[in-house]
Write a structure and sequence with these properties.
- The chain is an alpha/beta fold and 309 residues long.
- It has a single domain, classed as 3-Layer(aba) Sandwich (Rossmann fold).
- It has helices spanning 10-20, 47-56, 74-81, 92-106, 111-121, 149-155, 179-185, 196-204, 209-214, 234-240, 247-253, 271-275, 291-306; strands at 3-7, 28-32, 38-40, 43-45, 127-130, 138-142, 145-148, 162-167, 188-191, 218-221, 224-225, 228-229, 260-264, 280-284.
- The chain is built from 13 helices and 14 strands.
- The structure holds guanosine-5'-diphosphate (GDP) and calcium ion.
- Guanosine-5'-diphosphate binds at residues 7-12, 14, 48, 51, 193-195, 199, 221-223, 225, 229-232, 234, 286-288.
- Guanosine-5'-diphosphate is lined by residues 7-12, 14, 48, 51, 193-195, 199, 221-223, 225, 229-232, 234, 286-288.
Length: 309
């Protein structure tokens, strides 16, 4: 079964890793959000792409889910001593990724090609693609004004109350080479348990991607368990936007194209309401604490997905 997974950072990376444990590498393509990307110290930083790649390569920091295991912070400490900005945590080894990516981007190489080469160097056999080679930065509308995503997410630690989102220049962007082809070839599109507002919507907003996704069977895994997130602001965002934070709200978010939905045991009571949307609903353990949890959840997604074919 050929699968395309749409992923943000930590939640996306976890399920992508589970899918990679169940599928031959030629059958899995992971399309990653680039709305979080930004420039810092003149370096082009792609937090979600790096989280997915570090996770798939087995190099991620298990405590945080982002960044590298065994990281050191000498450069950042020195920047702090010199009075520079340290609100975005850049480890010493991680800096090497940003330096080399920025060097190649400056020569005019597309992000997708650079990502493919990095994956090969890190021993990742499946295909990881940025959703676009263009820059489509997410902006967050808040009660304290409009701000770039990382300003909201990291610097302000998601404290401002959100009222909406904007994906700048999205109308002028196009999917990275290979993205539409992979979706069109896919037997199943899996929407990972990523933030619907700022990880998945920015991928679907790139012209051409949503129609391609709508032409395939689509399965989503809820990032919200018992009304809360495992990590990050998705539940807080739902509440601030006046929508109840729940797995049901996530299913409704995707209802236009959703064929199947996976929700946590804690949310079993919502199963019939999800089914009432015309969506097949599976209740299972969705919190991926370990590599075995990832493999198990992905296997259940694939067997539910194969029932859709
Ligand atoms: P970010 O870019 O690092 O914020 O990552 P994502 O958007 O991919 O993931 C954030 C979402 O992942 C949050 O809404 C979390 O609740 C969800 N998430 C993280 N780990 C898990 C997990 O183990 N299971 C489920 N179901 N959701 C998870
Ligand atoms: Ca992200």
């Amino acid at each position: 079964m050929k699968v395309v997974a749409l992923a943000g950072g930590v939640g996306g990376a976890r399920l992508a890793d589970g899918l990679a444990q169940n599928l031959p590498p030629e059958d899995l393509t992971v399309v990653v959000n680039i709305g979080d990307d930004f420039d810092f110290f003149g370096l082009h930083i792609c937090p979600d792409l790096d989280t997915v790649c570090y996770t798939l390569a087995g190099m991620a920091n298990p405590a945080t889910g982002w960044g590298l295991a065994g990281e050191t912070w000498n450069a950042l400490e020195n920047i702090g001593r010199l009075g520079g900005p340290t609100w975005f945590r850049l480890g010493d080894r991680d800096l090497g990724t940003h330096l080399e990516r920025t060097r190649r981007l400056a020569k005019g190489e597309p992000l997708s090609q650079i990502t493919g080469d990095f994956c090969r160097a890190w021993g990742i056999q499946l295909t990881v693609l940025p959703a676009s080679d263009d820059s489509v930065p997410t902006w967050v509308y808040t009660d304290e004004g409009e701000m770039p995503f990382q300003e909201y997410f990291v610097r302000r630690q998601c404290r401002p109350s959100v009222s909406g989102f904007r994906f700048a220049d999205v109308d002028r962007s196009s999917p990275a080479k290979g993205v539409l082809e992979a979706i069109q070839r896919a037997d199943l599109v899996v929407i990972c348990p990523s933030n619907p507002w700022v990880s998945v919507d920015p991928i679907l907003a790139i012209p051409g991607i949503l129609p391609a996704v709508m032409s395939r069977p689509v399965l989503a895994v809820s990032p919200i368990i018992g009304g809360r997130t495992v990590k990050g602001p998705a539940a807080k965002m739902y509440a601030e936007l006046g929508i109840e934070p729940s797995a049901l709200s996530v299913a409704r978010h995707y209802r236009k194209f959703l064929s199947a939905f996976v929700l946590d045991r804690e949310d079993a009571a919502l199963q019939s309401e999800v089914q009432a949307l015309g969506v097949k609903a599976l209740v299972t353990a969705t919190w991926m604490h370990t590599a075995a949890d990832r493999r198990q959840l992905a296997a259940e997604c694939l067997s539910l997905g194969s029932a859709l074919l």
